[in-house]
Amino acid sequence: LYESFVHPITILSGLPSAGVGALLTLMIFHMELNIYAFVGIIMLVGIVKKNAIMMIDFALDAQRRDGKSASEAIFEGCIIRFRPIMMTTMSALMGTLPIAIGFGSSSEAQRPLGMAVVGGLLFSQFLTLYITPVVYTYMDKIHSVKKHKAVVDV
User: Fold this and answer.
1) Which of 42, 57, 119, 125 has its CA 20 to 30 A from that of 95?
2) What does each C-alpha distance from 133 to 45, 94, 113 come to in angstroms?
3) To the nearest whole number, what is the mean pLDDT of the chain?
4) Domain 7-144 - what CATH class?
């Protein structure tokens, strides 16, 4: 997975959508970007990154093991890993939903954490399922062209 810079860049491609989703949620609900919101965004980065790793790791394994093309491998990875990705996202979402709703003492301070995670997960989940396969396919094409060019130059 980490033999080159291509796949880590692909994994990180879904993170901007998570950050945008968290910030939009905080703006919509008129909440401050405080330390709790930053902790929520850091939690969000870990969850979104893990979802992309599940998809890409499966696709790389399918490419190496079965000799599939990048588009076939990532398509199969999306189909087969869809359920675990959704389960991970939904469990994180349901776990932080009580914090986002926030009743009780000190809930006013912790609500930005929950809102950042919930909003970022909802926003990024739909986009990551589309962005990551597209970036994976394009990065594989770029990597193949560079590899072919290096072989021709030798």
Assistant:
1) 57
2) 18, 26, 29
3) 90
4) mainly alpha
Q: Look up tokens 């945008």; give the residue.
A: 20
Question: For the residues 22-37, what does the mean pLDDT come to?
Answer: 95
The domain spans of the chain are 7-144
- Which residues lie closer than 8 Å to 31 by C-beta, 6 or more apart? 37, 111, 112, 115
pTM of the model: 0.85
DSSP conformational letter for 114: H
The reported pLDDT for the residue numbered 80 is 94
| Token pair recorded at residue 95 | 């776990």
C-beta of residue 25 within 8 angstroms of C-beta of residue 118? yes
Find tokens 């609900």 and name the residue.
Answer: 29
* pLDDT reported for residue 90: 94
